[in-house]
Amino acid sequence: MRSISVGRKRFLAALGLAAGLLPVRGVLADPLIAVVSQQAGVVTLIDVGKAIVVAEISVPRVPAGLAAAPDGRTLYVTHPDLGLISRIDIGTRRLETSFRVGREPFGIAVTEAGRTLIVSDWSSDAVIRVDAASGHETGRIAVGKAPAGLVVDAVGRRAYVADRESNQVSVVDLATMTRAATVPTGRAPFALALSPDRGQLYVANVQSGDLSMIDTARLEETARFKVGLMPYGVAVTPDGARVAVANQQSGTMAVIDATTHAILARPKIGSYPEGIVALSSQRAAAVAWADDEVTIVDVSRAHVVAHVPVGAGPRNLVVLPEHWETGAGEDMLER
């Protein structure tokens, strides 16, 4: 996997949750997003409502992918160059442990109420099932070449994996750990997102600059349309009405009508954006890889709301489910 080398970077020290704050238990924390910065080797937690950094957690070098447990208490980070996955306790803001998985673990998802990790292994061309508590491998299945992003349909017990160098998506039956199907896409599929009803899978194809739509019932591509130069991230709003795509070479977010596939807007979101998440039906956030920041966008008005500086080389981000805070300070009481 590539490592990032860029020029001088802006850096924002972690705000709030400093040492010395009194622990508070039983306080429902505000939703956060977690951002992984590859060059800095940190995970940054951001309060979306206030657009500020609330914590920064050091992890082993060159982190790439990340996924959160359903209860919001635990975060998992992949390190392809090291063959590691790290586990972070969100309540205490601490790295708990790191364990070896495969050769180059890249994409990751959490399933079975947080008990199981599903991981794509870039260089082994495999999807690996891992016990989240022990870090032990419990199963694997061969897929296409260079599996990158993946997404899990917990209800349907499926994993969808972007096989970048095979130009396809592999569909894995998680109950049997078998490959149920392969679906051709555009060139170099990398990131995926499911619609809220799980009926559509959206696939960002980096080299062909387009988005594939896959019907998950029929397991076939039903549409493919241009979205911009080098789409590296895709997200669907919770209402399913819009799809947001981060176009790395264009430096834009394509806001797409999910029904007509029309591009409604292309707001500028920084240099070399990659990972992207939907925060609500109106807002999305994306990392700007070369600018060392997270950009928050009002997708309904195609307007940039805020820029939040983070550590060098931000690669990916995830929304943390609401969780009960166990190690925060008195400031949590004021929210």
Rg measurement, Å:
18 Å
CATH superfamily (homologous) name: YVTN repeat-like/Quinoprotein amine dehydrogenase
Q: pLDDT average, as an integer? A: 88
Beta-strand residue fraction: over 45%
Q: Mind summarizing the main beta sheet?
A: 4 strands, antiparallel
Q: What top-tier CATH class fits best?
A: Mainly Beta
- Helix count, DSSP H or I runs of 4 or more residues: 0
- Low-confidence runs of at least 5 consecutive residues: 1-29, 323-335
Q: Please identify, by name, the CATH architecture.
A: 7 Propeller
Q: What structural class do the secondary elements suggest?
A: mainly beta
Question: How many domains comprise the coordinates?
Answer: 1
Structure summary, number of beta strands: 30
Strand order of the largest sheet: 4-3-2-29
General shape: globular
CATH topology: Methylamine Dehydrogenase, Chain H
Give the SSE string.
EEEEEEEEEEEEEEEEEEEEEEEEEEEEEE
Measured as a percent range, the helix fraction is under 10%
State the end-to-end distance.
41 Å
What does this structure look like?
The chain has 335 residues and is an all-beta fold. The protein has a single domain, classed as Methylamine Dehydrogenase, Chain H (7 Propeller). It has strands spanning 27-28, 32-37, 42-47, 52-58, 66-68, 74-79, 84-89, 94-100, 105-111, 116-121, 126-131, 137-142, 147-153, 158-163, 168-173, 178-184, 189-194, 200-205, 210-215, 220-226, 231-236, 242-247, 252-257, 263-265, 273-278, 283-288, 293-298, 303-309, 314-320, 324-325. The strands form eight sheets. The chain has a four-stranded antiparallel β-sheet, with no helix packed on it. It has a four-stranded antiparallel β-sheet with strand order 5-6-7-8, with no helix packed on it. A hairpin with a 4-residue loop joins β25 (273-278) and β26. The radius of gyration is 18 Å and the shape is globular.
